[in-house]
């Protein structure tokens, strides 16, 4: 059967709209390939394609067909409305030096800036002024003497503009901006990202779930971060912060999530997602975020060591991070290699979850993800070590950065 063509729109973090023509049988990865060509980059390592389905956003599994996520009217070519996908940051990293590509970092900066404009960390009001100064330097360069050379709405959350007014902001912000005179745009953007991540509602992706099976409206917010999960019960105001080591397991069956972690009543919390598709995608996002956290820990430590020894070194663009070939065991592997392998592992196992019990007849599946963070990671297969050495020349392989795919196979996945 011929792969019929369809149109869709991809919105970038800087609000640019790209119109793409795709095949009816195309997958998420095919859209990524077109974005690589249109954007002139092959590094969208930390990004994913997001779509609003059933009034809730979710990230596409790039290995699945687009038709799984898009409306029937798009498949039948009868849609009168524009079909939209969004390129969004899916995996947040604590150290911006891991973002090597200049263009990718600009997209990353654009998304983080948008999140800051929507942020509501009222107790950190002063930080928003410093962030605005970094953003002004990144966007406009050195401070101009013109009184109204920027619009406060483009650099501050609405609640700050409403509280202080335009005149106050235009009077006091330029002094902070002038202190950054001579700083490059890329350095200012990097500092903006790094400081913005200290706002608790910026570096996380929020999913809406319910505590009751029959409720369709979510009343529990689950935030996926690079370091764990943040869970907020809207009705009673309870807030839980679970770093990865505190989570014992996450069991997923159909729409049901069973989270077992320290600090919970009876050490478990049962939640329900809107649909099985939403549940599967949430679980995949949680697993990938945890694996990425484990994988980049050695890299972050090495970057801290490098910055400690070479204080004059500050990463301003992608070229600064191209380490020369040497016998130094402090060289870092390419970040794209790590995340690509994580995504391949997940894509290879998502569709092969074991069907158990009575669920075998109706397609229900049960998977338990045990989250345990040991002090040491081991690789069973020596071929994995050889592959790392070949791809990451000069890297000290004291503890491997990736676990073999076989480690994740089966009904129970032990993250270690």
From TrEMBL:
<dbReference type="GO" id="GO:0098592">
    <property type="term" value="C:cytoplasmic side of apical plasma membrane"/>
</dbReference>
<dbReference type="InterPro" id="IPR018980">
    <property type="entry name" value="FERM_PH-like_C"/>
</dbReference>
<dbReference type="InterPro" id="IPR035963">
    <property type="entry name" value="FERM_2"/>
</dbReference>
<dbReference type="InterPro" id="IPR047145">
    <property type="entry name" value="FRMD6-like"/>
</dbReference>
<dbReference type="Pfam" id="PF00373">
    <property type="entry name" value="FERM_M"/>
</dbReference>
<dbReference type="InterPro" id="IPR014352">
    <property type="entry name" value="FERM/acyl-CoA-bd_prot_sf"/>
</dbReference>
<dbReference type="InterPro" id="IPR018979">
    <property type="entry name" value="FERM_N"/>
</dbReference>
<dbReference type="InterPro" id="IPR019749">
    <property type="entry name" value="Band_41_domain"/>
</dbReference>
<dbReference type="InterPro" id="IPR011993">
    <property type="entry name" value="PH-like_dom_sf"/>
</dbReference>
<protein>
    <submittedName>
        <fullName>FERM domain-containing protein 6-like isoform X2</fullName>
    </submittedName>
</protein>
<dbReference type="InterPro" id="IPR000299">
    <property type="entry name" value="FERM_domain"/>
</dbReference>
<dbReference type="Pfam" id="PF09380">
    <property type="entry name" value="FERM_C"/>
</dbReference>
<dbReference type="InterPro" id="IPR029071">
    <property type="entry name" value="Ubiquitin-like_domsf"/>
</dbReference>
<feature type="domain" description="FERM">
    <location>
        <begin position="6"/>
        <end position="297"/>
    </location>
</feature>
<dbReference type="Pfam" id="PF09379">
    <property type="entry name" value="FERM_N"/>
</dbReference>
<dbReference type="GO" id="GO:0035332">
    <property type="term" value="P:positive regulation of hippo signaling"/>
</dbReference>
<dbReference type="InterPro" id="IPR019748">
    <property type="entry name" value="FERM_central"/>
</dbReference>
